[in-house]
Design brief:
The protein has helices spanning 8-28, 54-63, 66-78, 82-86, 118-125, 144-152, 161-176, 179-186, 191-195, 202-213; strands at residues 93-96, 99-105, 111-115. By secondary structure, the chain is mainly alpha-helical. It has 2 domains: 1-45, no CATH class; 54-200, Intergrase catalytic core (hpI Integrase, Chain A, Orthogonal Bundle), CATH 1.10.443.10. The protein has a 3-stranded antiparallel sheet, with helices on one face. Strand 1 and strand 2 (99-105) form a beta hairpin. Residues 47-210 form the Tyr recombinase domain. Keywords: DNA recombination, DNA-binding.
């Protein structure tokens, strides 16, 4: 368990296996108490956000057919997960003041309304009624796994639909500096999760640090030296 060569995910999985085994052994009487209860937690480092670069996304869009292009745009421009993309239906489109929004069926049966960029919204209104990505089964849609597979066929090997979602989150945060807005658009239950999606480059962080450095500081306090008494 303490082998430094093992990835944190591997050590965490082994810890879970040992705890499950000894819990069973304790339950059936093979051991008086589970020694695995004493195993320390395995911390897993939070992965850095990996928003797809614009040039890689542009190349993928150029290679994609209409179906794959729509999948990519729903992830990159609307921030949808692959399961949410698979379940998109024309009945979920909402028109308001000439603009289009999408009712998204997210994780944990949570629903949210997400505004759609103008050009993409106009395109969605031209699609025939039904699922945007129908399957061969009547009234069915493609599976999330198959949606991911279609996207992977045109994306660079180092990127997935999830890194397109990272791009969406990063761009929204750059435009708004509002983490709560990003959280709502992504459908996260916690802003802690949302923070993992927002990737800022070093230049942007420098500008933040410089802004703090440029803030006028009060002059240093003068040190009062008391005169010695003769």
């Amino acid at each position: 368990m303490a082998d430094a060569e093992l990835a944190p995910e591997t050590r965490r999985a082994r810890r879970s296996t040992l705890r499950a085994f000894y819990s069973w052994a304790e339950l059936v009487g093979h051991v008086a108490a589970s020694p695995a209860k004493l195993l320390p937690e395995v911390s897993t480092p939070t992965p850095l956000p990996r928003p797809i670069p614009d040039e890689d996304l542009a190349d993928a869009l150029d290679r994609a057919d209409d179906r794959r292009r729509l999948i990519l745009r729903l992830a990159a421009e609307v921030g949808l997960r692959r399961a949410e993309i698979a379940a998109c239906h024309t009945r979920d489109l909402r028109e308001r003041a000439g603009r289009v929004a999408l009712l998204v069926h997210g994780k944990g049966a949570r629903e949210r309304i997400v505004p759609v960029p103008e050009h993409l919204g106009r395109y969605l209104l031209t699609l025939p009624d039904g699922y945007l990505f129908p399957s061969d089964h009547p009234d069915g849609h493609l599976s999330p796994r198959y949606v991911g597979k279609l996207a992977a066929e045109v994306l660079p090997p180092s990127h997935t639909l999830h890194t397109l979602r990272h791009r969406f989150a990063t761009n929204i945060y750059r435009a708004s500096r509002d983490l709560y807005a990003v959280q709502r658009l992504l459908g996260h239950g916690s802003p802690t999760v949302t923070q993992r999606y927002v990737g800022l480059d070093v230049d942007e962080l420098w500008s933040v640090v410089d802004a703090v450095a440029d803030t006028p500081l009060p002059p240093p306090a003068r040190v009062r030296v008391s005169a010695s008494v003769a």
